[in-house]
Amino acid sequence: MLGALHDGGIGIYKGKRKREYRVYISQYKEGAEKWLQLVKQFFTEVFRTHVTGPIKGVISVSRKEVFFFLNLECGIGANRTPWYTPRWILWADNHIKRAYVRGFFDADGSFLVREKKNNEIQFSQKSRRTLSELKDILNSLDIRTGNIAKSRNILKLTIAETRSVLKFITEIGSSHPSHLRKIYLVLGRKLDSTPENLPEATAE
Questions:
Q1: Could you give the C-alpha distances from 9 to 59, 91, 97, 132, 154, in angstroms and in order?
Q2: CA–CA–CA angle 76, 134, 159 (5° rounding)
Q3: According to the 3-state scheme, what is the secondary structure of 42-74?
């Protein structure tokens, strides 16, 4: 969930009668609708609360308790304030680290599948510190990355080594339909074309 918030945020807004506390996740790339439904289900089951959407690529929760849990307990900055990887994730066991990276990948990652060149996994962010922390997590999972590079106004962290790409897609995987199609293509597996039947990649 926290990894997925790299494509969303939390905020305090002035309502007609009182302040509104909102948590939102947005995405517009291919397969976003299916992925947002999965995230919505997670929020509903974990926080036992109503989740609005997806509406125009956005799901949201307007509940004070959820806002303060993410803000105070997880360190998510409100109203677009920069936030970084919570310490408890940096110091967590590998299972939690994989779950965080998986959400981050689904939200802000891309999987480039090529015929004549190495396949690549990329993460894009404006925050160098966020990518540096992600790089440390991946290294602790024995997944090698390149250096953080700047492309126009965006910073990118790339996994290009064949062994590391394979390790990533088999041990971390994805819940996002667009990533899953490419993962199964690379692994040489058949995939049902119906979005509802998309299986998840293997993960611990």
A1: 11, 23, 20, 20, 19
A2: 145
A3: HHHHHHCCCCEEEECCEEEECCHHHHHHHHHHC
pLDDT of the residue at 134: 96
Q: How far apart are CA 41 and CA 38, in angstroms?
A: 5
Q: Is the peptide bond prior to 86 cis by the omega test (within 30 degrees of 0)?
A: no
Global pTM value: 0.82
Residue 6: exposure state from Cβ atoms within 10 A (0-12, 13-18, ≥19): buried
Structure tokens at 159: 């996994």
Q: Which residue positions in the chain have pLDDT lower than 70?
A: 1, 189-204
At CB < 8 A and 24+ separation, what contacts does 180-187 make? 181/31, 182/111, 182/113, 183/111, 185/113, 186/113, 186/119
Q: Give CA torsion, residues 182, 183, 186, 192, to 10 deg.
A: -70
* Domains of the chain and any CATH numbers: 3-73 (3.10.28.10), 87-197 (3.10.28.10)
Contact between residue 27 and residue 53 where contact means Cβ atoms under 8 Å apart:
no
pLDDT digits (tens, 9 = 90+) for 11-69: 888 877 778 888 888 887 778 888 888 888 888 888 888 889 888 888 898 888 888 88
**Could you tell me the strand order of the sheet in which 19-26 lies?**
8-14, 19-26, 58-61, 52-55
Question: Would you list the DSSP string of 77-99?
Answer: PBTT------HHHHTS-HHHHHH
